């Protein structure tokens, strides 16, 4: 499969790297892991070339990078790649932002990532973490607004079940 022209790739990298890297940092928290995931998304962009979608549809480069990096980050979370915490940066152990509370929250998120389907998780990340509207998420995912709403409903149902399990034992 032909790759992008070097000038097209260079332009895409210069234009989209900061946004993709920032999105990966929001998802993963780790600068090094986020950089690795963002870099992998750009490597895949180079390899994919002008044909960015296996279904025969060409998406915009930004949309393709956004979805690809989101999926790569979710895969990293599923594989248990953890964020390293700096204990010196945390406050007391009882503080809301303490290492213990952050670790517990990350553990709950990891359990949720393992529980929900990839499509539901992707819709939730795009709308709830990245702050996109349902319409924007639908465009990036190549689905309808209604499908995004259904994915988010299923995500909410699964996260509610997990919250109940955590609260009761």
> If helices are DSSP runs of H or I spanning 4 or more residues, what is the number of helices?
7
Task: Give the quaternary arrangement of the chains.
Answer: single chain
By CATH, the architecture of the domain at 1-84 is named Orthogonal Bundle
Extended strand count: 0
CATH superfamily of the domain at 1-84: RNA polymerase sigma factor, region 2, helix turn helix motif
What is the CA-based Rg, rounded? 18 Å
Structural features, described:
This protein is mainly α. It has a domain at 1-84: Rna Polymerase Sigma Factor, Chain: A. It has 7 helices and no strands. It has helices spanning 6-28, 31-48, 61-78, 99-115, 118-129, 134-141, 145-167. Helix 1 (6-28) packs antiparallel against helix 2 (31-48), helix 1 (6-28) packs parallel to helix 3 and helix 6 (134-141) packs across helix 7 (145-167). The chain is globular. The N and C termini lie far apart (52 Å).
Kindly list the characteristics that best describe this protein.
single chain; 169 residues; mainly alpha; 0% strand
Which helices and strands, and how do they pair?
Blueprint: H1 6-28, H2 31-48, H3 61-78, H4 99-115, H5 118-129, H6 134-141, H7 145-167
Helix pairs in contact: 1-2, 1-3, 2-3, 3-5, 4-7, 5-7, 6-7
Short description:
The protein is mainly α and 169 residues long. The chain has 7 helices and no strands.
């Amino acid at each position: 499969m032909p790759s992008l022209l070097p000038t097209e790739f260079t332009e895409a990298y210069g234009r989209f790297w900061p946004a993709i890297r920032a999105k990966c940092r929001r998802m993963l928290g780790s600068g090094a892991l986020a950089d690795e995931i963002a870099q992998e998304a750009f490597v895949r962009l180079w390899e994919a070339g002008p044909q960015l979608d296996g279904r025969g549809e060409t998406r915009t480069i930004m949309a393709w990078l956004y979805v690809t990096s989101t999926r790569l980050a979710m895969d990293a979370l599923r594989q248990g790649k953890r964020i390293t915490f700096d204990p010196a940066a945390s406050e007391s152990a009882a503080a809301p932002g303490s290492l213990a509370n952050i670790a517990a929250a990350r553990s709950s998120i990891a359990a949720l990532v393992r529980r929900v389907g990839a499509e539901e998780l992707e819709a939730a990340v795009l709308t709830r973490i990245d702050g996109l509207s349902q319409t924007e998420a639908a465009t990036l995912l190549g689905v309808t607004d209604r499908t995004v709403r259904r994915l988010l409903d299923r995500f909410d149902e699964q996260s509610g079940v997990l919250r109940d399990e955590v609260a009761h034992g």
